[in-house]
Amino acid sequence: MKRILLKLSGESLAGKGASGIDTSMLAAFADEISDALKLGAQVAVVLGGGNIFRGLGGSKKGVSRVQGDYMGMLATVINSLALQDTLKQRGIATEVLSGLEISPLCRKMSGPLAVELLSMNTVVIIAGGTGNPYFTTDSAAALRAVEIEADALLKGTRVDGVYSADPEKDPHAVKFDEISFAEAYDKHLNVMDMTAFTLCRENNMPIVVFDVNIPGNLAALLRGEKIGTIVK
């Protein structure tokens, strides 16, 4: 895989905390990205915002769904700026592009611009979701992976792949090393939300689900080791 899009949840940035940004997690993710660059990969990143605001809206949060979703998009921008700064402190060229127009913090996302930056070995962090409400960051990651013509969408989670059931609840859950989109759909496996899953399926974009919290996993995956589950 030469060009990848790495999807990370906002909650993972909180570390052991319930919310906020854990600087040790920023450092860990920066290590993983740095190792990927050393292997010659072009790296784009999409971060969630759940550690700051989940963006679901509704009466429980006192805001509408649309307003809540925009708040969630802004949360992804905060996380993206934090990761950008961490990478830049290591001397890694990094730029944040956003689905929302937020000058002077970052430029507006466009596929050609992202590809141009990636070709110059610049890490591209794509914030602001799709720029529209009612879409998750999973959907944004799928869209951006297709836009930049990535070789794969890598979904970093706290689970080491896709299972037949929730492995944290069912001790008999079976892990898949590889599974087709059709089989994953038929088995109702929770790979990504349906919009994201369908977008990847229709554009032949492989999804790799792996445990990003194990140091060196991303580099091992890029070296061709059997890490996580590939859906294609």
Question: What does this protein look like?
Answer:
The structure is a single chain. The chain is built from 8 helices and 11 strands. Helix content is about 35%, strand content about 20%. The model has no long low-confidence stretch (mean pLDDT about 95). It has a 9-stranded mixed sheet, with helices on both faces. Strands 7-8 form a two-stranded antiparallel sheet. Helix 2 (about 25-40) packs across helix 3 (about 65-90) and helix 5 (about 135-145) packs parallel to helix 7. It starts with a strand and ends with a strand. It has a single domain (about 5-230), classed as 3-Layer(aba) Sandwich (Carbamate kinase). By secondary structure, the chain is of the alpha/beta class.
CATH fold description: Carbamate kinase
Unreliable stretches: none
Please report which band the strand proportion falls in: under 5%, 5-15%, 15-25%, 25-35%, 35-45% or over 45%.
15-25%
Oligomer designation: single chain
Mean pLDDT: 93
Query: Largest beta sheet, briefly?
Result: 9 strands, mixed
Number of domains: 1
Helix content: 25-40%
Count, helices = 8
Q: Quick one: CATH class? A: Alpha Beta
- The neighbouring-strand order within the major sheet is 4-3-5-2-1-6-10-11-9
Radius of gyration: 17 Å
Distance between the termini: 14 Å
N-to-C SSE string, H for helix and E for strand: EHHEHEEHEHEEEEHHEHE
What is the 3D shape? globular
Give the helix/strand layout.
Elements: E1 3-8, H1 10-13, H2 23-38, E2 42-47, H3 65-89, E3 94-98, E4 107-108, H4 111-119, E5 123-127, H5 137-147, E6 152-157, E7 162-163, E8 175-176, E9 178-179, H6 181-186, H7 194-202, E10 207-211, H8 217-222, E11 229-231
Parallel strand pairs: 1-2, 1-6, 2-5, 3-4, 3-5, 6-10, 9-11
Antiparallel strand pairs: 7-8, 10-11
